[in-house]
Amino acid sequence: MPMQAEMTPMEMQSHMLVVSETPRVQLHVIESGPRNATMTIVFVHGYGGWATQWLAQMECFDTQTRVISIDLRGHGKSDRPRSTYSSDELLGDLEKAFQLLNIKKPFVLVGHSFGAALVAEYAVRHPGDVERLVLLNASTSYSVNALLRLPLLLPDWLIDGVLNIINKQTLVYAAPSFVLKALYWDALSQWNASEYFSKITIPALVISPTGDPVFSQQEMDEVAQMIPGSKLIKIKVSTHMTMMRRPGEVNQAMAQFLGLSGC
User: Fold this and answer.
1) How many CB atoms lie within 10 A of CB 119?
2) Which pLDDT belongs to residue 82?
3) Are 250 and 57 in contact (CB under 8 A)?
4) Which stretches of the chain score pLDDT less than 70?
């Protein structure tokens, strides 16, 4: 499960973008930093996550760059339509959002977990748009084991009811069960790592923990092996939320890779 939701700091701008009219879908965006900065960093969360999971990184770099974090369709404060939640649909949303945000190209894309898969696919689909990639807790397979898949077989009312009992604040941000089911079966379980990681031609930084309860070490290590010329940084921690559990080390690695000052 994702960690507890965090409030958006007052200095961060929070707004909605209409990325689809039929059906009407709005994405929630938070951003900060100078719009005329020479570099823009866009953060994309993973399966079941939300935009504010990147606050430690956004606050580190927003004096030097424009930083943007987006709640994917069905997640966080974005709209939650009954749709396919396929990779094509999510990437279409991001393409429209980037256009509406008037992001200066080329920009930096940072993704966590399945968000890493999405930004990698975006970079391959749009050569020239992205100058560098940062991938955290990425894997060559997003088809999780049977135990972790078990909740996806339960009725929606039961899953959402348990979440409500556990943490009502998190439920405001967490994707509902119908979103998680559709996204898993139509996107995560279908994603082909070899089709995209091996085709990345821009500088890429892969940040992995030494242990992850969701992905095997082999699957995470293979990401850097598949991306030509990529740099691998391993952080000594066992977690799926490396950017939240070890923000200082993640920020330091990103700063060095992007040529920015640390924080």
Assistant:
1) 27
2) 93
3) yes
4) 1-10, 143-173
Number of H helices, E strands in the chain: 11, 8
Q: What is d(CA 153, CA 180) in angstroms, rounded to the nearest whole number?
A: 11
The predicted pLDDT at position 21 comes to 94
pLDDT of residue 190: 82
Burial-class residue 160 by CB neighbours within 10 Å (0-12, 13-18, 19+).
middle
Give the CATH number, domain containing residue 108: 3.40.50.1820
pLDDT value at residue 168: 45
Has residue 1 been placed in a domain? no
Q: Which DSSP string corresponds to 218-257?
A: HHHHHHHHHSTT-EEEEEEEE-S-HHHHSHHHHHHHHHHH
Establish if 2 belongs to a structural domain.
no
Please say whether the beta carbons of 223 and 215 come within 8 A: no
Distance CA 130, CA 95 (A): 12
The domain tally of the chain equals 1
Query: Where in the sequence is the domain holding 178, given as residue range(s)?
Result: 13-258
pTM for this one? 0.89
143 neighbors 216 (Cβ within 8 angstroms):
no
Q: What is the pLDDT of residue 171?
A: 47
**Which tokens belong to 119?**
């930004």
Each residue's pLDDT tens digit, 135-159 = 999 999 986 654 455 555 555 544 5
**Half-sphere exposure for 40 (CA within 13 Å, toward CB):** 18
